[in-house]
Amino acid sequence: MHELVFYVATAWMTVLLSVAVVAVIGISSTAGRILALDMLTLILVVLLVLYGDAERTPYHLDAALILALLAFIGTLAAARYFAERKIF
Question: How far apart are CA 25 and CA 13, in angstroms?
Fold first, then answer.
């Protein structure tokens, strides 16, 4: 049962990853692209967590945590720059 859930989750995240890539390429507004890139990085975080669970290694979970934190900071900086034209 655990393997079935893993494969279904991996397949679903792969489909969502392809939709996110199409959204990043296809969306013309800057705010939409910021949100699509954030969605793309969060899907990559989930895939790293799933891979870390499959391989039973904590290193992938550390990489997922760092990627999530960097994506959060990057999204905040991009949104602030988009809104006010200054980062700090």
Answer: 18
Residue range 4-36, pLDDT digits in tens: 988 999 999 999 999 999 999 999 998 899 999
- One DSSP character per residue, 29-81 reads SHHHHHHHHHHHHHHHHHHHHHHHHHHT-THHHHHHHHHHHHHHHHHHHHHHH
| Domain hosting residue 62, numbered range | 2-84
What torsion, rounded to 10 degrees, do the Cα atoms 63, 66, 72, 77 define?
Answer: -120
Compute the chain's Rg from CA coordinates. Answer: 15
Q: How many domains does the chain have?
A: 1
pTM attached to this predicted model: 0.85
Cα 36 to Cα 44: distance, rounded to the nearest angstrom: 12
